[in-house]
Amino acid sequence: MQVDVGEMRSGANRSYNAASFAMEGADQLNRVSVGASIFGDFAAAESFHGALTEAHSNHIQRLREHESHLGVLGDKGHKTASVFVDMEERNAEALRSVL
Asked: One Pfam match, by short name (predicted)?
């Protein structure tokens, strides 16, 4: 088996970057809202505003979940790369001790 640890770490860093973008998107969405009066003062407008507000909140929540999952994925990528490096060092040392 051959493992490219550098590529594994690069992928982990890409996951961190994606997590950062998701966080930035959630933060930006969280700073804005649509006022209720923009659609008018009648039942259908109020209903639409309610649906829009709910969708807005759902998008923020989903971005925060993506941020968390992508961060965990980056952590696991780096941890796995470290495990392979440690294993390779132990195996090399074991071979040297036999020779």
From this structure: DUF2563
Q: List the structure tokens of 69.
A: 């999952």
Note whether 14 and 73 are within 8 A (CB).
no
d(CA 56, CA 66): 15
**Residue 74 neighbours by CB distance under 10 Å:** 20
Query: Is the Cβ–Cβ distance between 38 and 19 less than 8 Å?
Result: no
**Tokens coding 32:** 């804005």
How many residues in total does the chain contain? 99
The two three-digit tokens of residue 78, written as one number? 């780096």
Show the tokens assigned to 48.
């639409």
Provide the residue type at 81 as one letter: A
pLDDT tens digit sequence for 46-88: 999 999 999 999 999 999 999 999 999 999 999 999 999 999 9
SS3 23: helix
